[in-house]
Write a structure and sequence with these properties.
The complex is a heterodimer.
Chain A: H1 2-5, H2 12-24, H3 31-34, H4 48-65, H5 69-81, H6 85-95, H7 106-116, H8 140-151, H9 159-164, H10 177-192, E1 211-213, E2 229-232, E3 237-239, H11 240-244, E4 249-254, H12 261-280, E5 288-293, H13 301-310, E6 319-324, H14 328-335, E7 339-342, E8 345-349, E9 352-356, E10 362-367, H15 373-383
Parallel strand pairs in A: 4-5, 5-6
Antiparallel strand pairs in A: 1-10, 2-3, 2-6, 4-9, 7-8, 9-10
Helix pairs in contact in A: 2-4, 4-6, 5-6, 5-7, 6-8, 7-8, 8-10, 12-15
Chain B: H1 2-17, H2 19-30, H3 37-44, H4 48-51, H5 55-66, H6 72-86, H7 96-106, H8 112-124, H9 128-139, H10 148-155, H11 164-172, H12 177-187, H13 194-202, H14 208-221, H15 223-235, H16 241-254, H17 257-261, H18 264-276, H19 279-291
Helix pairs in contact in B: 2-3, 3-6, 5-6, 5-7, 6-8, 7-8, 9-10, 10-12, 11-12, 12-14, 13-14, 13-15, 14-15, 14-16, 15-16, 16-19, 18-19
The chains are: A alpha+beta, B mainly alpha.
């Protein structure tokens, strides 16, 4: 791990060399996965475009050496929520280096196509930081279609959607029709070989762990953060202990300047759905909800209030949007937040939601992949029975 | 055979009025170097509809944009046609990758206006290539594709571009007054820049525009600080009228109602400004006093 940690002050060129040397050394390849953590020091004080180049290069390296199980979730995350053409293309290529296609990947691929098709861009993997200026370069859409072809019969569940990409209405542009045809043909191949149908979405998913739970006696104490002072959306001050102790809580992280609509904006919209479910199940008073900003210096109460209200969040005593006044670092350590910064501004973050128990201890975390609102409510309500 | 020729000519008239036909004809005309520049530029305005019809039309327009030997007026008109076509996101889907590739290819063109417009389009797309070029130009002026003030303006389209350190350096040592103004505008989204804005706001030697930008930035990132400074500026009898008017507006819109109503010193001063100040200050003072029940 030593090499990948020593990248804080490296130039992008040095970072690229490090990635190439890790990829070339079978004994250190696993360190490439470590470089995909958002909170890795190498991303500290970099602009978002630089981070895109860096992460894209790591994914590109993985596509050469083979995608490992621990790195798989990072690739699926990019397909699930990525809006940058280079990263989505790199993720699609990396997935093709996974040992076997799995039906579990299919929904991520079709979602990525829907997310990126109107933002398609020429991309280049020829060398680090290259931007394509030529016609006929590859693009995320082309890479995703190649990955669907690689999926073959494992993508049978989404065959109708893939076929619709080749139709005149709502289909992809003509230039991709050959790629669509090849993907459709590869997916249908399973029908011709009359293999037993073991490709359904429910068949053994890939080993992706986006939800982690801790039993009551294994949870870490929240003592380190209990005195942290928050300011809520109305400007009222309260401590972690005052808000989070005495009942289970659902906590999500976000920031108002996030420009990925599939991350923070969607997270807060889904928090509103969580609140609705809690109300419908009579749990609204028993389980608190909180959205905490990654960007406390900029996200002032008025901004927090407007952001929540515009996304349907109901705000009152047990349901608040919070900013840490002076101890965001402690909060980062406690939740092990997947976020990094350039000065005070977030430059990259993962999706993350947490369930806290009556003592503010983390009982479950949902990260990277989109979480389901009902699952979150079920996990939180289970704590009421502890 | 007059009966047979009549429907044929109606059909051909209809076909001639078809917007797609018009666009195709305009494309053929606009790309023909034998026509006058003025006429080609005019024809290009009708081209967008033809662009996404077939790949050949798109490539023809892109070729004009890339071709340095073409008159710059025609190349700019081609760019405008492409930009107009790109507004129709769904129809433009098939053109987008080649469009972006071409924009990047001409971003370093010898013509400043073309560079500026192309980098503007890419910057609005938050394009990493454009941001890299703009930042490089600010750090190494000999490599600059655009003047620093324009580069800063384009970088400000994306708060996540790593432009704050360079903008801060430009505020401290500006190559020209406009660059300083644009650097201040860019920093208005930087939560750590409050001390810079406080300094500029209170500096009577600064331009009114820079001081007003600073007031607006403080309202966004440290509204309490703006209220404090606004009060002090209003009490300062040597302050400029425009800044006092800005401060009156700020306190009228965002002031703490209770604190202001109980601030007899401030109210007395504003009453005086309402009677003796310049017309802009008088008007702002009257609005302020009317809001706070005076």
């Amino acid at each position: 791990m030593q090499d990948s940690r020593a990248t804080t002050a490296q130039s992008e060129r040095e970072f690229a060399s490090l990635v190439e040397s890790l990829a070339g050394d079978p004994t250190r390849r696993e360190q490439l996965t470590d470089l995909l953590r958002e909170d890795h020091p190498c991303y500290d004080q970099r602009g978002t475009a630089a981070i895109v180049r860096m992460r894209g290069w790591v994914l590109h390296a993985l596509s050469h050496v083979g995608l490992s199980e621990p790195a798989l979730i990072f690739v699926l995350e990019e397909l699930d929520t990525g809006v940058d053409a280079y990263l989505v293309a790199a993720a699609a290529r990396a997935l093709r280096s996974y040992p076997n296609p799995s039906a579990f990947f299919a929904p991520y691929l079709i979602r990525a196509l829907a997310n990126i098709r109107y933002h398609d861009e020429p991309v280049s993997f020829e060398n680090y930081g290259a931007y394509s200026e030529s016609h006929g370069a590859t693009s995320p859409v082309r890479e995703l279609l190649a990955t669907l072809e690689w999926m073959g019969p494992s993508a049978r569940e989404i065959l109708p959607q893939v076929e619709s990409l080749g139709t005149k209405d709502g289909g992809l542009p003509k230039r991709f029709l050959d790629d669509v045809d090849r993907a459709v043909e590869a997916i249908r191949r399973g029908d011709q070989t009359s293999e037993p149908n073991n490709h359904s979405c429910c068949a053994s998913p890939a080993p992706v762990n986006s939800v982690v739970s801790w039993a009551r006696d294994t949870r870490c104490s929240s003592e380190s953060v209990e005195k942290i002072v928050f300011e809520d959306h109305e400007g009222a001050s309260l401590t972690f202990k005052e808000f989070f102790y005495g009942h289970p809580s659902i906590v999500v992280f976000f920031y108002t300047r996030c420009d990925n609509p599939l991350k923070c904006s969607l997270t807060i919209t889904k928090l509103a759905s969580v609140q609705k479910l809690l109300r419908e199940q009579g749990l609204s008073e028993l389980i608190h909800t909180a959205a905490i900003t990654y960007d406390p210096a900029y996200d002032l109460p008025e901004r927090l209030r407007a952001y929540g209200k515009h996304r349907g969040v109901r705000l009152h005593a047990g349901h608040r949007i919070l900013r840490s006044i002076d101890s965001f670092d402690a909060l980062c350590s406690y939740f092990e937040l997947g976020v990094n910064f350039i000065e005070s501004l977030v430059n990259r973050h993962k999706i993350e939601a947490y369930i806290l128990d009556n003592d503010g201890r983390i009982a479950a975390s949902f990260e990277r992949l989109h979480w389901d609102e009902q699952t979150l409510v079920d996990r939180a309500s289970a704590l009421l029975r502890e | 055979m007059p009966k047979k020729s009549k429907p044929k000519s109606a059909k051909s008239r209809k076909s001639a009025q078809n917007p797609r036909r018009i666009a195709q004809r305009a494309l053929a005309f606009g790309t023909n170097a034998k026509n006058s520049i003025k006429a080609r530029v005019k024809a290009m305005a009708d081209v967008p509809l033809a662009m996404c019809e077939d790949d050949k039309s798109l490539q023809t327009v892109l070729k004009i944009l890339r071709e340095e030997k073409e008159p710059i007026e025609v190349r700019l008109a081609a760019l405008q046609a492409l930009q107009a076509a790109s507004f129709s996101v769904v129809a433009f889907e098939s053109c987008r990758t080649d469009y972006i590739a071409t924009l990047r290819a001409v971003a370093a063109d010898k013509d400043l206006e073309l560079r500026q417009r192309v980098l503007g389009i890419l910057a609005r797309e938050k394009d990493g290539f454009a941001q890299k070029k703009l930042l490089e130009g600010l750090q190494q002026p000999d490599k600059a594709l655009l003047p620093p003030e324009k580069a800063l303006q384009l970088l400000s389209y994306d708060v996540h571009a790593e432009a704050y350190p360079i903008a801060r350096a430009i505020v401290g040592n500006p190559p020209n007054a406009t660059a300083k103004r644009e650097a201040l505008r860019l920093l208005a989204a930087d939560a750590n820049a409050a001390p810079t804005f406080e300094k500029v706001l209170r500096d009577k030697k600064e331009t009114s525009e820079n001081r007003q930008i600073s007031a607006a930035a403080l309202q966004a990132i440290k509204p309490d600080k703006l209220r404090t400074h606004a009060r002090e500026i209003l009490l300062d009898t040597s302050e400029h009228d425009e800044i006092q008017a800005t401060c009156l507006t700020a306190l009228k819109q965002f002031g703490d109602q209770v604190a202001i109503v109980n601030d007899s010193v401030l109210l007395r001063r504003v009453k005086r400004l309402g009677g003796k100040g310049s017309s802009v200050v008088k008007q702002s003072a009257r609005q302020f006093l009317s809001k706070y029940g005076q």
